[in-house]
């Protein structure tokens, strides 16, 4: 299983009145990490979209352990937690500037035709991508 690390510089605009990162921004950081994970495997989400296929989130879960503040560097760790040919579940851990686990979470995705949102099989639509995900899950 590959874990891809992505550094985030916490910007002032990402914080709330309490001086900590506003909770909705963690979903944005998850997306940044997920995009880097996909690129690490040799694929590009924009190429998927050129085929009129998109990958919406169908479920998201976030747990808040410690605050992250403006001026810190956060590290998003991303991996493929589950894949069954139709659904992909990505795992995330966000470390604060002191390398403590601040946030954990998952997002579940499917791929669909952009116009109809009709579900597709990754195996049929993008066989190389499917094979890479199978290897990640099997630890090969």
Task: Fill in the keyword field for this structure.
about 140 residues, alpha+beta, Thiol Ester Dehydrase, Chain A, 5-stranded antiparallel β-sheet, 3-stranded antiparallel β-sheet, about 35% strand, hydrolase, 4-hydroxybenzoyl-CoA_TE, YbgC/YbaW, fatty acyl-CoA hydrolase activity, HotDog_dom_sf
Layout of strands and helices, then pairs:
Blueprint lengths: L3 E6 L15 H16 L4 H6 L2 E2 L2 E8 L8 E11 L4 E8 L5 E9 L1 E3 L5 E2 L1 H4 L1 H12 L2
Antiparallel strand pairs: 1-4, 2-7, 3-6, 4-5, 5-6, 7-8
Pattern of helices and strands: EHHEEEEEEEHH
- CATH class descriptor: Alpha Beta
Q: The CATH topology, please?
A: Thiol Ester Dehydrase, Chain A
Estimated share of beta-strand residues: 35-45%
Structural class call reads: alpha+beta
Q: Tell me the radius of gyration.
A: 16 Å
Write the CATH homologous superfamily. Answer: Hotdog Thioesterase
3D architecture notes:
The chain is α+β, with helices and mostly antiparallel strands and 140 residues long. It has a single domain (4-138), classed as Hotdog Thioesterase (Thiol Ester Dehydrase, Chain A, Roll), CATH 3.10.129.10. It has helices at 25-40, 45-50, 122-125, 127-138; strands at residues 4-9, 53-54, 57-64, 73-83, 88-95, 101-109, 111-113, 119-120. The strands form 2 sheets. The chain has a 5-stranded antiparallel sheet with strand order 1-4-5-6-3.
